[in-house]
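Table 4 source record.
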Amino acid sequence: MSSFDLTGRCALVTGANTGIGQAIALGLAQAGADVVGAGRSAMDETAALLAPAGHRFASLRVDLANIGEAKELVGRATAALRRPDILVNNAGIIRRAEALEMEEDDWDAVIDVNLKSAFFLSQMFARAALAVKAPAKIINIASLLSFQGGIRVAAYTASKSGLAGLTRLLANEWAAQGINVNAIAPGYIVTNNTAALRTDPKRNHDLLTRIPAGRWGEGADIAGAAVFLSSRAADYVHGAILPVDGGWLAR
């Protein structure tokens, strides 16, 4: 059996209805995992994409801005399929404003979804794994703004920088107990969120010039990293934040 084979594993992926989360769910299913997708909207498209893989898929509606719902999600996933042993904290939102104009409600909304819910969902996931002394994997979806400052996205940058720190802290606490905690930092990926950049000739040109690989990333690029970090091949990887950015940070 390949060390990348996820047969017999169950993954809980937040924000799996579209974009990077959907691509990760598909990649994990193709590697052999059953998948529970969780998000605010329907996942009919995700279910259709995963069906050919031949593994079980369940979808759950959840509002991760509500921390009570986040805390209940592992139990709901267990009831829907079985106890997940892979958690992908992918769900996230962004609010754009100059730092001088950032509203408290927008700040709180971003921090609640991107950082607070990721912590408490990870906490409940780890408690369930440790209760049965089972190995488990947590993958946080960080950002290039876990390393850089950006502009007009103060709350998002704070949340993704915090998520990088949280990844390291949880790895320190849980590595010896059989739980791997790592993160992926996607670069510029083809998703609905980047459509405006890709259709703007100047911005698209400037970005492609800055990316050493010379292309936008695809969801499958992130999925491959997620399969690796979910697999036995990454059993000795703890607290890593893996950029999948076409070389952006190396420039």
